[in-house]
Specification:
CATH class: Mainly Alpha
Number of strands: 0
Order of helices and strands: HHHHHHHHHHHHHHH
CATH topology: ADP-ribosylglycohydrolase fold
Oligomer: single chain
Helix content: 55-70%
CATH superfamily: ADP-ribosylation/Crystallin J1
Radius of gyration: 18 Å
Bound molecules: magnesium ion
Number of helices: 15
CATH architecture: Orthogonal Bundle
Number of domains: 1
Strand content: under 5%
Largest sheet: none
Distance between the termini: 15 Å
Amino acid sequence: MFWTGDLIARNAPVRRRAGPSEAPHIARGVAAYLGLAIGDALGATVEFLTPNEIRHQIGLHSEITGGGWLRLKAGKVTDDTTMSLALGESIIARGCVDALAAAEAFDAWMRAKPVDIGNTVRRNLIAFRTTGKPEAPASEHDAGNGAAMRVLPVALACYGQPENSVISANRAQAHVTHNSALSDAACETLILMVQDFLAGKDPVLVERERAQKLVSEFPVFAYDKRRRENPSGYVVDTMQAVFQSFFATETFEDCLIDVVNRGGDADTTGAIAGMLAGAYYGLDSIPKRWLKAIDENIATQCPAQARALLALPRHP
Ligand SMILES: [Mg+2]
């Protein structure tokens, strides 16, 4: 099924929206990329607010309105989406995930003065400019969510590949800025979850085989206890908020509204939850008002890149 879809993708004309003939895994990949951008744009409005502040200032935050501490125009996205696109372009240009190509793409992205940038990303990209080494030194302190927020291009480029090559591809891109065991574990869990959903797997199975496996290997990620509100940029907080929202809701819209109204690093929890929810619920589940609200350039680039990544030749 995968190989058939792959051939269809390579021969199909480029379209803005998935058509009835598009293979299911491609339509889900497109939905995951649009979900990432929508979650980013929706969450950015309430980034760094607490749930109480959101309630007082907005009520229930459910519309893409821009604003927030970055004073974004409605529909604009932040580093979560633009770093993913930069990484994806480097993968398409090289035909595979390559650490140096990823580091150069991130460096070019930083030079273009993005609207926001994480501290760990900035520090380790500045170090890359000096050393030319596309791998940050291992540090348990670099366990922010900056690598996990940009894993989608790896999930798409490596769809159908053996798990060990998926893992090494991810580490090539992730270690450019985040060389930490917790970050790696989170990134790899997210990639495998997206790939499971692209393949049409049941979320009950995915929760057991991916999310609960992560918790059994790294108990710090346990998400079945206290409700995670106001998640920081620590990748453990991020994953707990995302898992709680994703596994406790039944639609794309409910999942995103639940996660961003937890406040904190809401653009990144929104982006990651949007990626998972897009991959699982599919294109038809994404509210039209959110699709319309997204910056037109981003709404064109995300689906085009999803299709191009899924059309890359596979190297089993
Ligand atoms: Mg951001």
